Amino acid sequence: MIVLASTSPQRRVILEQLGIPFEAVAPAYEEEPGRNPVEHAAGKARSVDGGDRPVLGVDTVVACHGELLGKPNDATDAERMLELLSGRTHEVVSGLCLRTPAWEELHRAATRVTFRPLTPRDLAHYLASGEWQNRAGAYAIQGLGASLIEGIEGDYLNVVGLPGALLVRLLATRFAGSYGFG
Predict the structure, then answer these.
(1) Which of the following is catalytic: 52, 59, 74, 155?
(2) Separation CA 16–CA 120 (nearest Å)
(3) Most buried of 39, 86, 97, 116, CB within 10 angstroms?
(4) Segments forming the whole domain that contains residue 94
(5) What is the pLDDT of residue 13?
C-alpha cells in the first residue's frame, strides 16, 4: 500500500482506477506561489510519514504562453485563465515525488492540451457550472471541461491530476509485481 500525500478526490479516483492500494493523508505542506510542481510534489511527499510504505506527492499546474496557472482565486480569475487557454495549446505539467526512507524519485510529466476557441456563451456556461473551482487552469477535463477541448497529446490521467503512466512505470521498476506492474 502506498501513502498518497493529498486530499484530492481526482487523485484517489485515479489510484482506484489503476488498482493501486493506498491510504490518503493530508500533507503538512504549504504551497508557495511561483514554485514549480516538482518542488511542491516533493514538499508534499516529504511532509508525510509513511513508515516503510512509499509516499506519493503530486502537484499539477497549467503552463500557457509563459504563465503558470494554478487554481483560480475566484470566478473572475477563472474567466481570465479560460480566455488565455481559448484556441490555444497549453501544457499540463505535474511534478511527482515517490519516496521511501531509503530513496526518493522526482519526476516531471507534461501533456499537451488544445482548447477550441471559446465564445462568451461558452465561458458563461462553464463558469456557471462551478466546475472550475479548485482546478489548475480552471477546468476539469473529466467533466464538463471536456467540451472545451479540441485535442490532447500525452497522458490523459495527467490532465485529470496524476500522471498515471509515469507512476505505473515507477512502481513497475521499484516494486516489480507488488502492485501488479512489472
Answers:
(1) 59
(2) 37
(3) 97
(4) 2-174
(5) 96
Q: Which of 81, 110, 83, 117 is nearest to 95 (CA)?
A: 110
Number of folded domains that form the chain: 1
Asked whether the predicted pLDDT for residue 22 surpasses 90, the reply is yes
C-alpha triplet 26, 27, 29: angle, nearest 5°: 140
User: Which is more confidently placed, 71 or 150?
Assistant: 150
In a domain, 27, yes or no: yes
Position 180 in a domain: no
Query: How much is the average pLDDT of 55-80?
Result: 94
Query: Is residue 182 situated within a structural domain?
Result: no
Total Cβ atoms within 10 A of residue 152:
17
Rounded CA separation 113/154 (Å): 8
DSSP 146-164: GGGEEEEES-HHHHHTS-H
pLDDT tens digits, one per residue of 102-133 = 999 999 999 999 999 999 999 999 999 999 99
Among residues 93, 106, 109, the alpha carbon closest in space to that of 45 is found at: 106
Q: Quick check: 35 pLDDT over 90?
A: no
Grid-cell match 476539469, residue found: 140
Q: How confident is the model at residue 182 (pLDDT cuts 50, 70, 90)?
A: confident
CATH classification at residue 20: 3.90.950.10
Could you tell me the three cell numbers for 124?
458563461
- Is there a domain that residue 32 lies in? yes
